[in-house]
Every structure is written in structure tokens, then in C-alpha cells.
């Protein structure tokens, strides 16, 4: 684990190095959760299986012990500052996260020059409020996007698009019900991008 300074206080990066890395995946956590979430753990395992170094980032508000998420602009600024300090070493950079972390990755994908974006349980809208859509955050991404979404997620089901694949799994926003399906989707997405062996 490494601690990195950001304009909003220190963040933490938990580095899981691949044996022979072909790319780097940086993942953020949800608004109220941490980097130990089951879907982040499964995504990390899947990425390492195709030689993608995975770095889990704890936002400064979590490091400071606060439960409530910081405003979006602060999350984005801290995330970008962390990525600028990470040892990417010229490898292709994938960014992503679960829920709120996926939103941050989408909003900043161009700024960090990402190769692709991995969204776990993207919160398309607040529960019961489909009119408050966050679809523009997805639509601003210009690189390939993989969304892994629970079929009964109360935060909605994002639509597919030419550059955006949606894998629907059994379960809800936690993505705990089909961990193997999640691993397969992530492995295929990352492996295809790097000509990796995805068997």
C-alpha cells in the first residue's frame, strides 16, 4: 500500500502487481464502501489472471475516516492526482470502479488518457428516480466501456451503445450473486484489449 498526496488530503493505493504486466487497471470504491468490496476483489483476481496489474484507490474522505462521500469535483480531482503519481510505466491504463467509483472513472477517463473503462454496478439513476439520469457521464467516454450490472439493480440498467457493452448478471447493486460471471466478463474485456489469453 502506498499513500499519495492529493489536493484534498492523502489517498491510499493498494497495488496488486501482475507477474508480467501487460496493462494497469485502477479501480475506485463506492460512495459508502471501501476497496474490500466483493466485486472489486473479483475484478482484481480476474485482471491478475490476464497479467493486468490492479491498483485499488481509497479516496481521501475514506482515508480520513469519513463515511459520507466528498462532492464529485473533489472526487475527480483527487482521483486524477492519484493516477498521475502511480507507476503506470507506459502500459495501457484501464480505469474503473464500483458505483460512485465508476462514475468518477467515466468523468475523468479523457483527462487520464484511459484505454478503457470498467464500470461495476454503474448507478444510472437514484433508486426510483429514473428522471435523474447519469447517462451523460457514460456518453462522454470515448474509449471502450464494460458495464457489469445486476439485473435487479434499483439504480437502473444502463443501455448498450457502439462502444459500450453491458453484461447483465443475476442479483442487485452488490454484484455478489454471480462472482464467476463478473470475473469472466472482466477477464474477457481486459484480455481482448491486450491480446491476452482469456481462456
UniProtKB/TrEMBL annotation:
The chain positions of domain KANL3/Tex30 alpha/beta hydrolase-like read 23-163
Source organism: Solirubrobacter ginsenosidimutans
Question: Which keywords accompany this UniProt record?
Answer: Hydrolase
Is Zinc one of the keywords? no
Protein name in the entry: Alpha/beta hydrolase
The record's GO molecular-function terms, alphabetically, read: hydrolase activity
Amino acid at each position: 500500500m502506498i499513500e499519495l498526496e492529493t489536493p484534498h488530503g492523502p489517498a491510499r493505493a493498494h497495488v496488486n502487481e501482475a507477474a508480467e504486466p501487460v496493462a494497469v487497471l485502477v479501480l475506485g470504491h463506492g460512495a459508502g464502501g471501501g476497496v474490500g468490496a466483493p466485486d472489486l476483489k473479483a475484478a482484481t483476481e480476474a485482471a491478475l489472471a490476464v497479467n493486468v496489474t490492479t491498483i485499488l484507490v481509497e479516496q481521501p474522505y475514506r482515508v480520513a475516516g469519513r463515511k459520507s462521500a466528498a462532492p464529485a469535483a473533489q472526487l475527480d480531482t483527487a482521483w486524477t492526482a492519484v493516477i498521475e503519481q502511480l507507476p503506470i510505466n507506459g502500459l495501457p491504463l484501464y480505469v474503473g470502479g464500483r458505483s460512485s467509483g465508476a462514475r468518477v472513472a467515466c468523468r475523468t477517463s479523457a483527462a487520464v488518457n484511459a484505454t478503457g473503462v470498467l464500470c461495476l454496478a454503474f448507478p444510472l439513476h437514484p433508486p426510483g428516480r429514473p428522471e435523474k439520469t447519469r447517462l451523460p457521464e457514460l456518453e462522454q467516454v470515448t474509449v471502450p466501456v464494460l458495464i457489469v450490472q445486476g439485473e435487479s439493480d434499483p439504480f437502473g440498467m444502463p443501455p448498450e451503445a457502439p462502444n459500450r457493452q453491458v453484461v447483465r448478471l443475476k442479483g442487485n447493486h452488490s454484484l455478489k450473486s454471480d462472482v464467476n460471471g463478473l470475473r469472466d466478463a472482466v477477464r474477457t474485456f481486459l484480455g481482448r484489449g491486450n491480446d491476452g489469453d482469456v481462456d
